[in-house]
Write a structure and sequence with these properties.
Blueprint lengths: L1 H29 L13 E11 L5 E11 L4 E8 L2 E7 L1 H19 L15 E9 L7 E14 L2 E8 L2 E4 L10 E4 L2 E5 L1 H11 L1 H7 L17
Antiparallel strand pairs: 1-2, 1-10, 2-3, 3-4, 4-5, 5-6, 6-7, 7-10, 8-9
Helix pairs in contact: 2-3
Length: about 230
């Protein structure tokens, strides 16, 4: 009789355990962003731009940003390393449009001498929702989240830099064995661009240019053959 009771108790525990896990999975699915990018999707290399990261005590430090385009999701990726973390910032078409409009306003304010040395200006030109993947190494697990990108500017050494502020990102790994590894965060920081650097990135965000990268290139015609137009 005791064996039967124990068996029933184990079945109940397993049932509620499974139900609890299923609920966590459903909650995770509901938190999935509307805009997301599969890292395995085809990518087209776009180019490389330079920017700066704030090194706090040491001031600004240059960073190389690899830019690529994912035609399936119509997303542009900015890949760069900050400290030991590799960040993959993804901008969809509305996000790229928001960046271009913000840069246009910044350029107007720059030319009109309207820029002020104020920390609040990092959100001066609006924001957009993007998608972020971050990881420690190429083979480590992917952390991902919706993220808020804000556009503005900040002064460093009396020079105004156009900025993209990446808001704090939080990823909950429901499969983590250790509770201390369940929540992964990526804190807020800025990418600093000179006018020239921001203009170069703007060229890579141009939709017509991105479309041209996906066109099938014609093979070189053999000069020894007389082709006739028809």
């Amino acid at each position: 009789m005791k064996i039967v009771k124990m068996s029933l108790l184990l079945l109940v525990l397993v049932f509620f355990g499974c139900s609890s896990f299923k609920r966590e999975v459903e909650l995770a699915k509901n938190r999935e962003p509307k805009f997301k990018v599969d890292m395995k999707s085809p990518k087209v290399p776009v180019g490389t731009v330079e920017a700066q990261l704030d090194g706090s005590i040491s001031g600004l430090k240059k960073v190389n940003i690899n830019v690529s385009y994912s035609p399936v999701e119509d997303a542009v990726c900015l890949e760069f390393k900050r400290n030991t973390i590799t960040n993959y910032q993804f901008f969809d078409r509305p996000g790229r449009s928001a960046f271009l409009k913000a840069l246009e306003k910044y350029t107007e304010d720059f030319d009109s001498k309207n820029l002020v040395n104020n920390k609040k200006t990092k959100n001066q030109y609006g924001n957009t929702e993007g998608y972020l993947i971050w990881k420690l190494t190429k083979i480590s697990d992917q952390n991902r989240d919706n993220v808020d990108f804000s556009f503005g500017y900040l002064f460093r050494e009396k020079s105004p830099f156009f900025t993209i502020t990446q808001g704090e990102a939080v990823f909950e790994d429901i499969f983590a064995k250790d509770s201390s590894d369940k929540i992964k965060t990526n804190g807020e920081f800025q990418l600093f661009f000179t006018r020239a650097q921001s203009m170069e990135l703007a060229a890579y965000f141009d939709q017509q240019y991105l479309r041209s990268l996906t066109n099938i290139r014609q093979e070189t015609l053999d000069p020894n053959i007389s082709y006739e137009n028809y």
